Amino acid sequence: MSxxxxxxGGIGSGKSSVADLFSALGVSIVDxxxxxxxxxxxxxxxxxxxxxxFGGSVVDADGRLNRPVMRRIAFADASAKNRLEAILHPLIxxxxxxxxxxxxxxxxxxxxxxxxxxxxxRRMIRRILLVDCEESLQESRVMSRNGLFLDEVRxxxxxxxxxxxxxxxxxDVVLNNGNIETLSxxxxxxxxxxxxxxxxxxxxxxxxxxxxxxx
Length: 215
Ligand SMILES: Nc1ncnc2c1ncn2[C@@H]1O[C@H](COP(=O)(O)OP(=O)(O)OP(=O)(O)O)[C@@H](O)[C@H]1O
Ligand SMILES: [Mg+2]
Description:
Low-confidence stretches: none
Strand content: 5-15%
Number of helices: 10
Bound molecules: adenosine-5'-triphosphate, magnesium ion
Order of helices and strands: EHEHHHHEHEHHHEH
CATH class: Alpha Beta
Number of domains: 1
CATH topology: Rossmann fold
Distance between the termini: 25 Å
CATH architecture: 3-Layer(aba) Sandwich
Number of strands: 5
Strand order of the largest sheet: 2-3-1-4-5
């Protein structure tokens, strides 16, 4: 199992920007949102179980999960969200593990936007890296990127963990209040740290193997 760093942060905090910077340094990025979408596209690994559980109304004509319908069902029936997660989470976990294990770099970055809120991927994560920025910056960045109104962005932020809750679980923090250059410098520094940690760990495994061989 490779050394896995979980990358999290609130909406618009800069997770994708940080992941791109790590990727430019040659680090393998595994994106759990992308995996969730693959599982629920036509022929995706979760679609048969979803159809069996919720019926054909949550499946589009082309075989894709109909997210608006699924959201309405989950809104009306609290157990539906749990039943959907019971299908998706083990599949997301298995696929994330598979991709991290086969990562070509000494460590992998696993992007988990809702790491603090859901937590089911924690057991495969060695360190949590939080991307943090002022809430006013999250608001302005998401408004201009997604063309949303301020109250719409705030409504999404209200469903997410608070900054103190995220800070409480973070091992490392990238502060994204400045420009991309400032971000890039912080990422380069963390990259060195993670290479050291990942190497230290594989040295540790080698040492353990030798100890077992000797005794
Ligand atoms: N330091 C920065 N300076 C200027 N713009 C930035 C900076 N960081 C991020 N942005 C911009 O803000 C927007 C949100 O950033 P990004 O997509 O990286 O965040 P995210 O955490 O991945 O968002 P989401 O939660 O929606 O996936 C993007 O349009 C990005 O280009
Ligand atoms: Mg993103």
